[in-house]
Structure to design on (500 residues):
């Protein structure tokens, strides 16, 4: 795995040098079209039938606050256009059947890859979260309950754990709203600490899409909106994933 | 735990309202003095004898690159003024005998608290890192090797995992360089993806200390400096921790 990873790194470095501009990915084609509609992205992202475990479902560790707000949004999926996003163990599961950009060859000799925000699988100890997305309004709401393994200052969530939760919510929103695939910029202003075990509600909004970039904002606050935990902005690079040529080989 | 945490949150919200200014902590006293020297902070932070497990020591998962750079810096601790920082399971261990600011009463009815960047204890699967600090130069170097539980795009570290690593390196640097305790701002520009299993070297520098704030910069790159993974800046709030009145009760 190490060798493959380093080869990827070397390849990235080489192509970057050829382009003579700093970029997160090799071979950026500014003329690339972003033809997939949000509806088709959402319907691919939320398979009706799957054997994959969805980690964004209530469990015994969810606080009453988290559970009741989850139920509230679940009601809104029936009539108000909101979509509950599934959350699988790895982004590999989310992009099944799609090809990564050339130069980004994913190492595959590990059996247990986990998306960072699902790294801890003991209920209630790490990340508990669920994201709802609104395709028309291009906004998301993430219900986030940090567990004791996400500690920073004693009794409170680590600033980095909130940063990662924001990045992940931005990431899923950017992908579904406009094929945003890679974080370019993340700017966070922290206001108050989140007590471990309590609920933080992240409201993400796509502000604009320009020059192959999605610009988003986020505010994380208590459910009653009395306490603002942090505000942030994020910029993501658009990148259209193509269908694998041999989907039957998956 | 839930009730206590929510009480803390309520208290924070209430005091914040009284102050009528957004702040991360209640009762900020601008006249507070920051009298502890970096040397005394470092010597308290790095106890010569302790029963606590230090997670910042080599293990079988460390790549040859990580291991050899670790040895290089270890040599520099003997003659060049660098200090290897220990990394315990929780910040509670790091601030033993010190009192948190009023209003921040740490919940304590969980036995297994973990600092976020040590949340995964299976060697090589999550965060592998070690921080070296230079008290005179007020700079740090963090050797960071992300494992497969830190994945974002298939085969690469999640942007949020690097954000958290930067925040944690900023945090330890800010505390030792000038009693910086809480992240106020974190701004990250991502340039290239870090392949899982490879080494990223984070160089953190304290740029200035002004108005009770520490301003820091960070660059994360490959060991050969050919590939820049990300650049960031961080602002931390200074806060002097006091000795517990009854240290024998700890």
């Amino acid at each position: 795995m190490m060798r493959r990873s380093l080869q990827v790194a070397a390849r990235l470095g080489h192509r970057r040098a050829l382009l003579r501009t700093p970029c997160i990915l090799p071979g950026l084609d500014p003329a690339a079209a972003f033809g997939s509609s949000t509806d088709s992205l959402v319907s691919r992202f939320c398979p009706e039938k799957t054997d994959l475990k969805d980690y964004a479902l209530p469990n015994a560790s969810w606080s009453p606050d988290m559970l009741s707000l989850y139920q509230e949004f679940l009601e809104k999926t029936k009539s108000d256009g909101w979509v509950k996003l599934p959350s699988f163990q790895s982004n590999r599961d989310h992009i099944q059947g799609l090809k990564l950009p050339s130069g980004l060859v994913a190492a595959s000799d590990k059996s247990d890859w986990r998306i960072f925000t699902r790294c801890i699988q003991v209920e209630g100890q790490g990340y508990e979260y669920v994201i709802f997305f609104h395709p028309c309004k291009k906004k998301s709401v993430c219900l986030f309950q940090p567990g004791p393994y996400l500690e920073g200052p004693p009794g409170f969530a680590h600033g980095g754990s909130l940063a990662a939760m924001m990045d992940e919510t931005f990431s899923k929103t950017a992908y579904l709203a406009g094929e945003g695939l890679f974080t370019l910029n993340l700017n966070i202003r922290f206001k108050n600490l989140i007590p471990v075990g309590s609920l933080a509600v992240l409201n993400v909004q796509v502000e604009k899409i320009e020059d192959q970039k999605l610009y988003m904002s986020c505010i994380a606050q208590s459910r009653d909106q009395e306490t603002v935990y942090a505000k942030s902005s994020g910029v993501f690079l658009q990148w259209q994933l193509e269908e694998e040529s041999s989907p039957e080989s998956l």
Helices of chain B lie at 2-19, 38-45, 64-79, 91-94, 159-178. The radius of gyration of chain B is 18 Å.
